[in-house]
UniProtKB/TrEMBL annotation:
GO terms for molecular function: hydrolase activity; metal ion binding. The keyword Zinc applies. It comes from Sutcliffiella horikoshii. Gene3D superfamilies: Ribonuclease Z/Hydroxyacylglutathione hydrolase-like. This is MBL fold metallo-hydrolase. Pfam families: Lactamase_B. Its cofactor is Zn(2+). It comes from the Bacteria. Residues 12-191 form the Metallo-beta-lactamase domain. SMART domains: Lactamase_B.
Amino acid sequence: MKWKQLPLGPLQTNAYLLINERKECLIFDPGSEGEAFNSYLEENALKPLAILLTHAHFDHIGAVDAVRKHWNVPVYVHKKEKNWLGDPSLNGSQFFQLGPITANPAEHLILSEEKLVISNFELEILFTPGHSPGSVSFYHEASKVVFSGDALFAGSIGRTDLPGGNHEQLIQSIHNKLLILPEETTVLSGHGMTTTIEREMDSNPFLNGF
C-alpha cells in the first residue's frame, strides 16, 4: 500500500489517502477544497471507501460533506465529538474569520480503541485526546505509518487552547500511545512535514524531559 499527503485550505491542513493495490483508498481529514479533492480522486481513478476523522476541528472537516456526497462513503469520528461536526462553537470555526463550517452527522462513531477493518485495510485506532477530547490516531502497521491528526507534529505538538483541550492529557497521549510505536514509524501529521517516532523521541522540545 501507499499513502499520499494533500495539504488543503487556508491553514494547509493535511488530508491523506491510504491506497491499496486495487486503487481503493481511505480518506483522512478532508479539510477543505472538496471539489478539487474529488477531482484529484477521479483523475487518479481512485475509489474511496470511507472518511476517517482524527478529530472534528473545522479545518479537518470542511470538505467532508462534498466528498461524502460525491462518493457515497461513510464518515467515522470519535463519539466524544459526534456533535462537533454541526456546531461551530465546538469545532472552532466560530473563533476564526472563515465563517461557520459544519458537516452532517457521521455514519459511524468510534466507541473504543479497536481494530478497524475496511476491505483489506486494517488499522489500529489509538485514543489520543488532549488537542481535543475525541482525538484519535490511526496506526497502519503494514505501511509503518500513523495518522496522528493534530496530536504530534514534526518538532511540536497540538495546541490545547481550543474547547476541550488539555495540555497534560495531550502529553500523556503522545507518550503512552504514539511514542511506544516502532521507532521507524512515519508520523503523518495534520499540518506540516512528516516525521518519525524516533526523531520526535530524540529531538521534540515539548517531549524531552517528561
